Structure formats: C-alpha cells, structure tokens
Amino acid sequence: MINVGVLGATGAVGQRFVELLADHPWFNLSTLAASERSAGQPYGKIVNWRLETPFPEKIAGIKVTPTSPKAMKGVDLVFSLCQQILLPVWRMNLQMRELPYAATPAPTVWNRQYPWWFLR
C-alpha cells in the first residue's frame, strides 16, 4: 500500500479527501495534518465532521500532526488542501509554503484552485 498524508485534514475539503482515502484499496491514510492547535490530538476528537457520510471510525485514533514537511516522514504521497491566504505578497507566501515540501522525497498534490479573477 502507498502511505499518504493529508494537509488541512480538518477542513471541509480535507474531510472529503479523508473520506475517500480512509477505505481506499491502494492507499494507507497514515498522516493527518492540521493547525498547531489541533496537533497531537486524535483526529476523531478534534474534527467537526461536516459530511453527510458517516465518520470513518478506523482513522479516529490517528494523531493529528502539524503541517510541516518533517511531519510527513514515511509518507509516499501528500495531498495538500491548506487554504491559501490572498495577500499582496501571495506569490511569496505560496512559494514559502510549497518549497519545503518540494525538497522532500514524497510527491505533493496541491489544491491549486485560486481565484485568479480576483488578482487581475
């Protein structure tokens, strides 16, 4: 199986990925990352499950890690669903967030749905 991690696992889009990956035949959902205030706590205890489908109890005990490349050690593939903050220096913020993950051996799939119309 392929060990995968989800950055932003407690958000609405992150929950959808958790739902899809929890019982996937090819992927082992091994790492769930969220904000520092959630780090160290079991996912089932801190997530406010927003989906209509039942919460996947088998991953309830996974301890949430901070969103850092170090936390993704042992992960083969990372799905990043972190919100991007739109500030005047948004490009720099984006690069600063992505570069550390680019240096890790695990490929990272980014949520690149930016409101480009807003930036024009």
What does this protein structure show overall?
The protein has 120 residues and is an alpha/beta fold. The chain has one domain (2-112): NAD(P)-binding Rossmann-like Domain (Rossmann fold, 3-Layer(aba) Sandwich), CATH 3.40.50. Helix content is 27%, strand content 20%. It is built from 4 helices and 5 strands. The protein has helices spanning 12-22, 43-46, 90-102, 116-119, and strands at 2-7, 27-34, 64-66, 77-80, 108-110. The protein has a 5-stranded parallel sheet with strand order 3-2-1-4-5, covered by helices on one side. Strand 2 (27-34), helix 2 and strand 3 form a beta-alpha-beta unit. The longest helix is centred in the last third of the chain and has 13 residues, at 90-102. It is globular. The termini are far apart.
Radius of gyration: 14 Å
Spatial strand order of the main sheet = 3-2-1-4-5
Shape: globular
How many strand units?
5
CATH topology: Rossmann fold
CATH class: Alpha Beta
> Topology as H/E string?
EHEHEEHEH
How many discrete domains? 1
Distance between the terminal alpha carbons, to the nearest Å? 43 Å
**Which class of secondary structure composition applies to the elements?**
alpha/beta
Which range best describes the helical content: under 10%, 10-25%, 25-40%, 40-55%, 55-70% or over 70%? 25-40%
Largest sheet: 5 strands, parallel
* Individual helix count: 4
The CATH architecture can be named as: 3-Layer(aba) Sandwich
Q: CATH superfamily membership, which one?
A: NAD(P)-binding Rossmann-like Domain
Mean pLDDT: 77
Strand content: 15-25%
Low-confidence stretches: 85-92, 113-120
